[in-house]
Design the sequence.
């Protein structure tokens, strides 16, 4: 241990040496293992993924639904008025900047990748028995399934850890680590081997989750550049793109959160919205505006059955068995949950001062509404181009050939197609840069336990590491591409999924201890809670050391 401390001092690091060197060492060891034993590793992840999908797919599907229900309950309960931080804290960022940061740092790359590809995939190959491809029913189901995958449920995966981090880290001044969330369960052991093991898993999950996103984004950028300038669609070209994007993201890391992430987020959201407005105007505008409301209604009607749909009868009704759920829903939840530690800490950091109700409603509702509009504009436009009630078209052909081609084939049907395709490439690149510098900052915080950014060299190290992992996964996947990424992330996502599920228990214990001091709102408190600038003394909820809260909670209730 003394040698490790000496090395850390020589390198000028400001971090928890156990977490930093364990995470870095394991990441490097895994990279070497992946590169040296490519076939063996690929087979191992394939077997692991198949076992998880077959035996634990239900756990992923039902688990995320339980998280969403829990969050809704917390928001509407008496606990919703508690603040993420001290009682007199107020939000640091405006609502617009806050929304831009949480969106661009979250699933921007996913919307660009799947905005056309997923609706078209379900439109051309419906997952439900008896539904004809390219039919009206197939188009409606395709939109509802796409929204199920990328709206409320996805943001519930981000909101739960964000709420837990904000509550325990800012309200009770615990270190900014994932292990801090489990104080009600582990008590002082969060500072011991168990707590540090949790933090190392969180760091590894974040790195590999981002690497999969970078792999998807790189494939899409490669497809776009292939259309624009003839860049070959090959492993070496993807690795080259990763190198360039990592360099850009590292430059943003050096600038820091406020100057880097906020500016990139605001710029990126404007460009993305501009692209969406262009498609809305250039397509059948009236049809799309009507579909915004109709698709919302269909989604609201289908969200409950989709949330519990495990395809249990697949072996009797489908040749693919559990293959569809494993390749879509389980993959989505396993992939998204690897982002949970990163997004949780990031959301908590930019949301300090907001009430639990404001946080849950804002993080769940605002991005979900944007996702709805995005998918309606891009998804329905694409399905109209391919012909609803017909037999398919160029976009369906592109999806069957290569999913990353979908967006660029879609843009070929619009004026100034080459220009729009170029803008799309830039948007994907910006979304990656935003996610990467955000993740690097958060990984650095998870290792140090400090709410402030560490030395630049630490953040640069993690930024470069993320790029190296992504490049390794691209090399490992080879021609298999998306399938290989799905295998890796499904296996890595399982332990992170279990950790996030346990956060519900920790939160219930924490809220219960806090709740004995939450009184009904007075009229003045109600006004303050809903936006009045003044804070009354009666609105303040007294705080006490966390250990005393949990030890005395049973007696006081």
Sequence:
């Amino acid at each position: 241990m003394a040698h490790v401390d000496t090395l850390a001092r020589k390198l000028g690091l400001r971090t928890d040496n156990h977490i930093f060197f364990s995470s870095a060492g394991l990441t490097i060891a895994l990279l070497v293992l992946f590169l040296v034993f490519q076939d063996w590793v690929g087979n191992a992840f394939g077997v692991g993924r198949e076992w998880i999908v077959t035996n634990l797919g239900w756990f992923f599907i039902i688990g995320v639904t339980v998280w969403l229900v829990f969050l809704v309950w917390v928001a509407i309960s008496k606990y919703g008025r508690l603040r993420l931080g001290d009682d007199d804290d107020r939000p640091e960022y405006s609502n617009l900047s806050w929304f831009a940061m949480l969106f661009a740092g979250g699933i921007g790359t996913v919307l660009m990748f799947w905005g056309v590809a997923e609706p078209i995939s379900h439109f051309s190959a419906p997952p439900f028995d008896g539904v004809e491809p390219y039919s009206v029913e197939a188009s409606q189901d395709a939109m509802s399934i796409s929204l199920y995958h990328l709206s409320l449920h996805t943001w519930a995966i981000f909101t739960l850890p964000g709420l837990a981090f904000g509550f325990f880290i800012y309200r009770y001044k615990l270190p900014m680590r994932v292990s801090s969330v489990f104080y009600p369960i582990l008590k002082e052991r969060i500072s011991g081997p168990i707590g540090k093991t949790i933090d190392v898993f969180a760091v590894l999950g974040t790195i590999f989750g981002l690497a999969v996103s970078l792999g998807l984004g790189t494939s899409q950028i490669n497809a776009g550049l292939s259309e624009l300038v003839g860049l070959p669609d090959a492993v070496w070209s993807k690795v080259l793109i990763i190198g360039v994007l990592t360099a850009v993201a590292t430059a943003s890391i050096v600038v820091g959160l406020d100057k880097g992430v906020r500016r990139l987020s605001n710029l990126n959201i404007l460009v993305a919205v501009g692209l969406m407005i262009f498609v809305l105007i250039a397509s059948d505008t009236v049809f799309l505006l009507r579909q915004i409301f109709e698709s919302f209604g269909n989604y609201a009607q289908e969200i409950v059955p989709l949330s519990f749909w495990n395809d249990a009868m697949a072996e009797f009704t489908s040749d693919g068995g559990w293959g569809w759920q494993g390749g879509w829903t389980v993959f989505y939840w396993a992939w998204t949950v690897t982002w949970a530690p990163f997004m949780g800490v990031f959301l908590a950091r930019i949301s300090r001062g907001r009430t639990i109700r404001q946080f849950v409603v804002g993080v769940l509702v605002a991005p979900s509404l944007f996702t709805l509009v995005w998918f309606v504009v891009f998804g329905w436009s694409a399905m109209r181009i391919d012909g609803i009630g017909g037999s398919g078209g160029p976009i369906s052909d592109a999806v069957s050939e290569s999913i990353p081609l979908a967006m660029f084939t879609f843009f070929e049907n619009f004026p100034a197609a080459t220009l729009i395709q170029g803008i799309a490439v830039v948007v994907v690149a910006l979304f990656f840069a935003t996610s990467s510098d955000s993740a690097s900052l958060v990984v650095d915080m998870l290792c140090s336990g400090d709410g402030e950014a560490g030395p630049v060299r630490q953040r640069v190290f993690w930024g470069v590491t993320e790029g190296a992992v992504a490049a390794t996964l691209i090399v490992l996947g080879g021609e298999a591409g998306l399938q290989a990424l799905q295998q890796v992330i499904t296996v890595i996502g399982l332990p992170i999924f279990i950790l996030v599920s346990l956060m519900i228990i920790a939160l219930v214990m924490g809220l219960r201890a806090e709740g004995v001091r939450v009184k009904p709102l007075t009229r003045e408190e109600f006004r303050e809670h809903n936006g009045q600038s003044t804070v009354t003394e009666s609105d303040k909820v007294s705080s006490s050391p966390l250990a005393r809260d949990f030890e005395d909670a049973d007696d006081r209730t």
User: Anything to note?
Assistant: The domain at 42-516 is CATH 1.20.1740 (Amino acid/polyamine transporter I). The mean pLDDT is 82.
